[in-house]
Automatic annotation (TrEMBL):
Entry similarity comment: Belongs to the LysR transcriptional regulatory family.
Keywords from the UniProt entry: DNA-binding, Transcription, Transcription regulation
Protein name per UniProt: HTH lysR-type domain-containing protein
Start and end residues of each HTH lysR-type domain: 1-60
Molecular function terms, GO-annotated: DNA-binding transcription factor activity; transcription cis-regulatory region binding
Amino acid sequence: MNINQEQLLMFQTVIETGSFSAAARKLGKVPSAVSMSIANLEIDLDLNLFERVGREPKPTDEAWALYEKTQQLLIEMNQWKQHAHALSTGLESTLNIVVVSELLHTNWTDYITLLEQHFPSLAINIVSAPQEDALQMLLDQSAQLALMFEREHLDSREQFVELKREALVPVVSNIHPLAQLQEVSFEQMIQTRQIVVASRDNTIKPELLYSKDYWRTDNHHSACMMIVRNLGWGVLPLEMFNENPELKKKLKILELYDFTPKFEYYVDLVWSRESELGAAARFLIKHIRTQRQQTNK
């Protein structure tokens, strides 16, 4: 059996137009070519697809049964060809993006939507990870792009473009002893257990670690739950409070004696200089750079 896309298209068009001649006109072919193609298809399938009685061919029950599957198959074949063409022009087969867990609440899905619109056949994998793990995934090339906070020390292998600023604030449960104080000293904070978002690798020290006594978790949602349950204080995205007003009833932003209780960081799109990026990753980087240029004008 050697059935090709052209035969399937002719079969679909004959059913939809109601005749060989109408299908031929729609496809830009002579009627005899369409008639012969359908006849060969019937031979290959060992099925009678049309009753040739009267002026117009009448689809058989078998033809109607195959018609719906033919529509789906032609769509998939076109998608396959488009994907193959995209790959031949440099599109990566899969784009792996890691989002730092504290940034999951941001508008990162806007960028994924943009990629889907321009590269509909692209497979995209999204994972979340603590800051330190996200960078390591870039460097070992298990991810091509990362949405993460600015780093205190840049690795020579990384390259980035700035996206926005994000604020983090120290918070504690409303029933925690620190919450009863109008202002808290830094010494009091470091003597109190901290819930810190950290790498899954316990040998890596978290960037936002201040307390001598601390518990680790790999995402800010579980950190928030632990802080709400009065297990310690922690640093959470300020935007979480805007998205979830209920948190304002359960958590208190600590007022500090010595400095403003707000840590502002740039959020970057980061990639490795050692990675050979595909068309989609390069497109997103260029898009963000263009956005920055327009914003800065």
